[in-house]
Design goal:
mainly alpha, Serine Threonine Protein Phosphatase 5, Tetratricopeptide repeat, 38% helix, 7% strand, globular, TPR-like_helical_dom_sf, RagB/SusD family nutrient uptake outer membrane protein, cell outer membrane
């Protein structure tokens, strides 16, 4: 909030400096009204809103959970998990970012109807205004979701959200207002979603005839070409009705979860039904992408992206950009010229079932502790580099053992050099193995970075439906939690020889199915920024020690790598200390 009184002036200075938008004004600080006849200037408000979308899935907060550790002791998540999380030291802070985004959206909503987007047709101005208002409502709801996720919590015995601002603020505005209840914030979010869905199409696609123009526009003389100009395929990567419905499902899942359900009217059934609206647009259970496990490395899909089209698994994404090597440089093993930053834990490796679908601690799993990576869930090999697996453009076998160099050990071995693994594992998921980091022949590749993947929405439905109606209940929908989880596990290649006997054994047990769904979510979404939030919304402990494996002379020894230091109140994140000090009406979450 500390910057919010300056946002309008800063925006004018920033946009003023863009020579490709318009000639510089005489003064640095332009009046907002001066942009009404310059649509690109006005749309800059919306663009700055998009620029505020958090990139949670690329900050690797899994390194503060039982999924992974960092090999860099200066990493923010290393220190966060070591007891240094505080209101003035919070790498997960969304307060300033969310309120800046909300300010931009409020300015856009207040002024968009005054902007002239065309000179030839007032009707087209209405199309543009409706789309931009729809985007602004949807983005405002999204910022509220991230604000609640990061800062919603209990204060003085009441579950609170953030402050609600529905009008743009300036230096004369009142900032010292109390936080609204979590329920009030959720209702505002739902209201914004409803407003957005009245204005946005499910998808931005060209229509083939005037008969397909919505009646409210057809009555104003809008034809197919006019409609396609505003709502057609050129707008594909903008926030759409489908994406808006997904944000509603994400927020509802959070609100229905144990940590946030106090005094909250959102139910598990609500979350399930919201997710089902999106799943139905995808074709139901059958719409689950068959290539969704390896979405990050499906070369043909990524190489053929064009015209705003997404791979089948990806609903919404960042821009593709140019070929790059940065992700691999951070995470490849040392022998592949990487820094090995994120080290998956033994905890996570143990969560991958046997190939027959049974957990590895189940007597029917046939798990062999002396050959622990054999006959395992295929996703283990896709997502994690373990001893004896391959990595890099030449499919090099990676040796993570503690064996000395004289006995065949390498710098990929546990704790061998500064950038070696601390757990005995390296991250493989998200990385393009065809990236070459050899200084003599560096070769980058295209990367797709999703904002929302469809598998997340399927998992939202499975979790919420199981809680609302049990494993086999469908509510008003045509599929159950069991149906979703069966499809996800079949896609992964689990239980193909035995009909996934373990899943069948728990299909009538809500509690056992809950544990299975949570585990499937852990595996499918690992390293994508979900685990830290999930453990907290489930009211589960953050303090499980991160474990690894030390392999020497063929012997496997589980080791403790890093203890996690979190207090019970850290189920909820803090309000920034600077805000609490400035505004007496702003209460801090309990314990911070």
């Amino acid at each position: 909030m500390k910057n919010i009184t300056k946002i309008l002036l800063i925006l004018m200075v920033l946009v003023q400096g863009c020579d490709d938008l318009f000639e510089p004004a005489i003064q640095n600080n332009r009046e907002l009204e001066s942009g009404f006849d310059e649509p690109r200037f006005a749309q800059g408000l919306l663009i700055y809103g998009y620029a505020r979308i958090p990139t949670n899935n690329w900050v690797f907060s899994d390194m503060a959970t039982d999924n992974a550790v960092s090999n860099d002791e200066s990493n923010t998540f290393f220190t966060l998990a070591s007891g240094q999380w505080a209101p003035d030291n919070n790498p997960l802070n969304q307060w300033d970012n969310a309120y800046a985004g909300i300010q931009y959206m409020n300015l856009m909503l207040e002024n968009v109807d005054s902007v002239s987007f065309t000179v030839e047709s007032p009707a087209i101005d209405i199309l543009f205004a409706d789309r931009i208002k729809g985007e602004a409502y949807a983005l405002r709801a999204m910022f509220m979701y991230y604000l609640l996720q990061a800062h919603g919590g209990v204060s003085n015995g009441e579950l609170l959200g953030g402050q609600i601002f529905l009008e743009s603020l300036d230096q004369n505005s009142e900032f010292n207002v109390p936080r609204a209840t979590f329920e009030e914030c959720m209702q505002q979010l739902y209201s914004d979603i409803d407003n957005a869905l009245e204005l946005l199409p499910n998808d931005y696609e060209d229509i083939a005839s005037d008969n397909l123009v919505p009646q409210k526009y057809l009555a104003r003389g809008v034809n197919r070409n006019d409609y396609n100009r505003v709502f057609g395929e050129d707008a594909r990567q903008l926030i759409s009705g489908r994406i808006t419905k997904s944000i509603r499902a994400q927020a509802a899942l959070m609100a229905a979860s144990p940590a946030f359900s106090q005094g909250n009217s959102t139910t598990w059934a609500d979350a399930a039904n919201f997710a089902a609206e999106v799943i139905d647009l995808k074709g139901g259970v059958a719409g689950l992408s068959p290539t969704g496990v390896t979405w990050y490395s499906n070369v043909s899909e990524i190489s053929n992206i064009g015209g705003g089209v997404n791979p089948p698994e990806v609903m919404w994404r960042n821009s593709i950009g140019d070929p790059s090597t940065g992700l691999e440089a951070s995470h490849f093993p040392p022998t592949q010229f990487g820094n090995g930053l994120l080290n998956p834990t033994q905890n996570l490796v143990d969560a991958f079932p046997a190939s027959n679908g049974y957990p590895i601690n189940h007597p029917s799993s046939n798990f062999d502790p002396q050959n622990p990576y054999a006959n395992r869930d295929p996703r283990l090999n896709h997502f994690i580099v373990y001893n004896g697996s391959t990595a890099g453009p030449n499919n090099q076998v990676i040796n993570t053992t503690a064996d000395p160099l004289s006995a065949g050990g390498t710098n990929d071995g546990i704790n061998r050099v500064e950038v070696s693994t601390r757990t005995g594992y390296y991250m493989k998921k998200l990385l393009r193995q065809d990236v070459n980091l050899n200084p003599n022949s560096v070769n980058g590749q295209l990367h797709v970075k999703p904002r929302i993947r469809y598998t997340e929405i399927y998992l939202i439905y499975a979790e919420a439906a199981n809680e609302a109606w049990g494993p086999n209940g469908t509510g008003p929908n045509g599929y159950s939690a069991y149906d979703i989880i069966r499809a996800i596990r079949q896609r992964a290649g689990i239980g193909q020889a035995n009909g996934d006997a373990y899943l069948e054994s728990v299909r009538n047990d809500t509690d056992a199915m809950r544990e299975l769904i949570r585990n499937e979510r852990r595996l499918e979404l690992c390293f994508e920024g979900f685990r830290f939030w999930d453990l907290r919304r489930w009211n589960l402990s953050l303090t499980e020690p991160a474990r690894g494996v030390r392999i020497q002379s063929g012997n496997f020894q589980n080791i403790n790598v890093q203890n996690r230091v979190f207090a019970n109140h850290m189920t909820y994140g803090p309000i920034p200390l600077s805000e609490v000090l400035k505004f007496s009406a702003l209460s801090q979450n309990t314990g911070w």
